[in-house]
Amino acid sequence: MNPDFAQYRLNLSESHQAISDLIFNAIAQELTEATFKIWHRHPVWFLDGNPIVGISSQKKGLRLMFWSGADFDEPQLDVREGKFKDASVFYNQVSEVELDDLMRWIQKARSIQWDYKNIVQRKGVLERIHPTL
Predict the structure, then answer these.
(1) DSSP characters for 14-73?
(2) What's the rounded Cα separation, in Å, for the pair 56 and 20?
(3) Domains of the chain by range and CATH?
(4) Mean pLDDT, rounded, of the chain
(5) Distance (Å, rounded) from C-alpha 98 to C-alpha 76?
(6) With bands split at pLDDT 50, 70 and 90, how would you rate the model's confidence at 82?
(7) pLDDT value at 58 more than 70
(8) Which one is predicted more confidently, 121 or 55?
(9) From its phi and psi, is residue 38 left (phi > 0), alpha (psi between -120 and 50) or beta?
């Protein structure tokens, strides 16, 4: 296990640890080219420096967030209104995680991306990235 992730999970409840372990392993299996780091105190995975998926522990549960998830066309993901393209789902028990959904979302995170890496230089304007698969 990644030592930064191991440290992060120590502060989670037992159920959130189990959920985060499942998510971490699924992402590690599917997004082998992704870079992982703790970013703003949360586990985040990046493709070419662009954040694509992350988790955070919140009152409502363990949040799995996809930076470009609003365009995934997945009804299980909650899309917030606004200028950003993020979408997320909350979990409180590992049994709530549908592995087929999770793997599909992770795959979509690779192919559907908005350029958050350069959002500051573009003064808050997001542009679609067309990654080579």
Answers:
(1) HHHHHHHHHHHHHHHHH-TT-EEEEETTEEEEEETTEEEEEEEEETTEEEEEETTGGGS-
(2) 9
(3) 3-129 (3.90.1150.200)
(4) 91
(5) 10
(6) low
(7) yes
(8) 55
(9) beta
